[in-house]
Design brief:
Two copies of one chain form a homodimer.
Chain A: H1 3-14, E1 28-29, H2 34-42, E2 48-49, H3 53-57, E3 62-65, H4 69-79, E4 88-91, H5 97-106, E5 112-118, E6 139-144, H6 150-162, E7 166-169, H7 172-198, H8 203-209, H9 212-217, H10 225-234, H11 236-258, H12 262-281, H13 299-302
Parallel strand pairs in A: 1-2, 3-4, 4-5, 6-7
Antiparallel strand pairs in A: 5-6
Helix pairs in contact in A: 4-5, 7-11
Chain lengths: ~325, ~325
């Protein structure tokens, strides 16, 4: 019942029942901190408060885990004996490979696992910051276990669509490598910028001159430290590669400055501007190539055991 | 007649004449590109278009240079023989030490120089993006030449207040060291992030997953490349020190990830979150200690030749 769990409850309860072939949706909420569940209840994000994991899961067709990544392993182990035949487990964690491995190892064969990651968030956390429109138009990554049934995929896809988000099928390892560059690296840059500047002896004076540029580049540093610690640690291999690449680029810029190399510096800044403008023009809801990932992977393909069963090769 | 020059014209022309003890303000605009001056005229940012530098400066009491930093040296040399007795020259460049040196070397003794830097901007450039409210509530750094008269300081201060901004006196070298950390480093991080990610072979797929966090951290990369090239090159010494400090911090984070050092990583992320929240709480218009810089430096102090004549020592 944090930001994402509560927003998800709100979005599902707001969904018109005709938009969900699964019929009317009943949401049960559970959090170790019962105050969070009370806030979620007051905000009409859930129909019912559960007082234990057992109570929350009893009779559930779909179980959504919305906790920091590191808590998911224990949670899966506790859930395993409680799951009904044919129930579906999903999560909303920002890294997927490790979570999918844990699910494969820990969940019983009669339950399906479909990993999930909505590309939505804000720097505030907690049920109080929840927003039913958080997922509207957002890409919602889905990384189904190879054993998951078509029915399970269809059901999760239905819920994602009911929240106004766009299902996006991707291999969990590819997912992690990509979000390391476009999500976890930017977060670390924000946090490292705050660290480097705020520990300067001149910070008191400097901070008076910090303006809107500083505010935006440092924004992600205000995110939940525990959640981000877990994200970084469960995606450290990909993230370290991106940090090295970033340090290379920055060291190059440093050399250009040291050599007063106006020509190469200008070329780099022009390229960065152009790349960003191109990216912005390809809006998040209609980027080229997006449609090829929104089609549910077929059983036939998924059981061939191909290394990257969910993606067409570029240009094919 | 770019973003800042045009916004400045608009703000001055919008100012109530009773708010400016200098009386009614007449604004003449000049740009090498006469289309920019026409846009500024259409947007009511100027009273009169000048067709040459000579025409623009003739009879001017205050001359405002709003060009990329590197153009200022030539401009000062061209201006020098055109300036009336008692006229005042100011600029709006993001680096101040070099500009102040040029002004001291190139301007005649009968004109006063007061360096300026409004802490305001946006990623769009040009007269079309100008906004008379751009300076509202913004800190406006002033770095007067030691020879500038009290009357010149008072006149520039009046104009700054008329635009709704807050005059903030600071030594030019301190100014440059500080903005290198809170403004130019964040800009380079944005540009380097775009460079590192957009040149990856996986960018096409990755870019689909880039969300609001990426958008904000990369925002400054959309700024004018020429302007930023000049800023970086005229402030390279301070900027290189900040790049080195930043790379140190990021390399430390890399080591924490490699060693799965959850404890230190969490401590760093918590500290960054707290520092940012503290900074945000101390809003830009009422930050602690801000008032001591908004008082005009006294002639007596400025002529003592003290190394830092415009600032009280911390704690005094």
């Amino acid at each position: 019942m944090g930001l994402i769990g509560t927003s998800l409850g709100m979005a599902l309860r707001n969904a018109e029942s005709r938009a969900t072939p699964a019929g009317e949706i009943h949401v049960t909420g559970y959090d170790q901190d019962s105050r969070a569940t009370s806030i979620a209840r007051d905000r009409l994000a859930i129909d019912r408060k559960a007082r234990s994991l057992e109570e929350a899961v009893a009779g559930a067709q779909v179980v959504v885990l919305a906790t920091p990544v590191q808590a998911i392993r224990d949670l899966l182990a506790q859930l395993a004996p409680l799951l009904d035949e044919g129930s579906i487990v999903t999560d909303v964690a920002s890294t997927k490979a490790q979570v999918c491995d844990w699910a494969r190892d820990l969940l019983p064969a009669h339950a399906d696992f479909v990993g999930g990651h909505p590309l939505a968030g804000r720097e505030q956390s907690g049920a109080g910051a929840a927003d039913p429109a958080l997922f509207q138009g957002a890409i919602y990554c889905l990384t189904p276990d190879l054993r998951a049934s078509q029915q399970a995929l269809q059901r999760i896809e239905t819920l994602v669509l009911a929240m106004g988000a766009k299902p996006y099928y991707i291999d969990p390892h590819e997912h992690d490598a990509y979000v390391a560059g476009v999500s976890h690296l930017p977060f670390l840059l924000s946090a490292a910028l705050m660290r480097a500047t705020s520990h300067s002896p001149a910070w008191r004076e400097m901070s008076l001159l910090a303006s809107s540029g500083f505010r935006d580049v440092s924004r992600l540093a205000s995110g939940d430290p525990l959640m981000h610690r877990d994200i970084c640690l469960t995606n450290s291999t990909a993230l370290i590669r991106w940090i090295d690449e970033f340090i290379n680029v920055l060291a190059n810029v440093r050399d250009m400055l040291g050599q007063e190399d106006a020509e190469h510096l200008e070329a780099l800044l022009r390229d960065a501007q152009q790349q960003r403008d191109t990216w912005l023009t390809n809006t998040p809801n209609a980027r080229p190539g997006e449609e090829q990932y929104t089609q549910r992977p077929q059983v036939e393909r998924r059981f061939l055991g191909l290394p990257k069963p969910f993606r067409r090769k570029r240009g094919s």
